[in-house]
Backbone:
């Protein structure tokens, strides 16, 4: 049985999706890849922007937006195992 | 009324116990802050603040345990810690304040709510209850036991349901801290409860330490391989 993902796992999945796309991705693509509702995705993207893990970039031609991962976001992915071990061990997941 | 009744042979041991508690809680706090630096998750920050507050409370208590035999005559079989001097009062009250602030913070983390007003209300209620209590030490340990019980419920429910945290080490540690707190309630009545409370707390903190080391083991192995 698959377990529900916690907040940190969802953040990791979104950041991985953005990183896989060479650091620039449209919101529709994130929605498709991250398996979240639109509202949830907006919430998580807002949180990731607030934390400085991603930045929102405006596209001039289509008036749409894309997201790009920052160094902070990459550090989060690199340290994810350490973060997950701690939150699981101390019941913060 | 005494703050505590302490068997005189226990002063040196008490000091060592309190320093051990302080170091373990400080290690958890520092690691929480390190993790927070990478993930910016508020739970990690609050957990770190909670444990930092507990560490400060133990160092204040250690100050009392160090100061009393050094400055006062402890030739009596049982020493009554009460209004001996300014530093004893300061140490005991600092211990009480930081310990309750730490436990309130940890309990607040387990509620999984985001609201500064809820946190400040919790802390205010706890402190007001303590200020107006006739026997402050009994009230302090009773409130501590109550807060620890909520934390035990949180970890216990997660363990039984398999929905939340399932770590039996951390659950066991908080069970011992809860029992220790209940035992400390009687430390103003009989000195042996002061000793038993310390031993129960030591077992609790050793479980936290074991959990901490188990968590670090894969990281340490990885570090060794890299070298």
Residues:
């Amino acid at each position: 049985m698959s377990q529900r993902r916690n907040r940190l796992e969802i953040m990791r999945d979104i950041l991985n999706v953005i990183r896989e796309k060479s650091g620039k991705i449209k919101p529709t693509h994130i929605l498709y890849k991250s398996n979240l509702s639109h509202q949830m995705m907006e919430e998580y993207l807002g949180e990731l922007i607030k934390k400085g893990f991603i930045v929102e970039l405006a596209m001039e031609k289509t008036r749409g937006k894309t997201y790009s991962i920052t160094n902070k976001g990459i550090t989060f992915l690199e340290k994810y195992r350490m973060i997950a071990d701690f939150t699981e061990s101390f019941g913060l997941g | 009324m005494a703050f505590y009744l302490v068997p005189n042979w226990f002063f040196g041991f008490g000091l060592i116990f309190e320093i051990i508690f302080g170091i373990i809680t400080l290690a958890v706090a520092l690691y929480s802050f390190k993790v927070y630096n990478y993930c910016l998750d508020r739970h990690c920050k609050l957990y770190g603040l909670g444990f930092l507050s507990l560490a400060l409370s133990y160092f204040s208590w250690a100050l009392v345990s160090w100061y009393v035999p050094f400055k006062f005559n402890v030739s009596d079989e049982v020493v009554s810690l009460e209004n001996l001097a300014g530093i004893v009062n300061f140490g005991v009250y600092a211990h009480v304040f930081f310990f309750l602030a730490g436990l309130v913070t940890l309990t607040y983390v387990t509620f999984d709510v985001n609201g500064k007003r809820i946190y400040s209300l919790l802390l205010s209620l706890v402190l007001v209850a303590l200020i107006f209590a006739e026997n402050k030490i009994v009230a302090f340990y009773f409130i501590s036991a109550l807060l620890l019980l909520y934390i035990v419920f949180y970890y216990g429910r997660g363990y039984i349901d398999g929905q939340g945290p399932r770590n039996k080490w951390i659950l066991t540690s908080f069970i011992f801290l809860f029992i220790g707190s209940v035992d400390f309630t009687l430390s103003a009545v009989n000195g042996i409860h002061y000793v038993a409370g310390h031993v129960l707390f030591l077992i609790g903190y050793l479980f936290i330490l074991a959990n901490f080391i188990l968590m670090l083991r894969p990281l340490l192995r990885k570090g060794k391989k890299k070298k």
Observations:
- The helical segments of chain B are 11-39, 42-71, 86-111, 116-131, 136-161, 168-184, 191-226.
- Chain B has a mean pLDDT of 86.
- Chain B has one domain: 4-226.
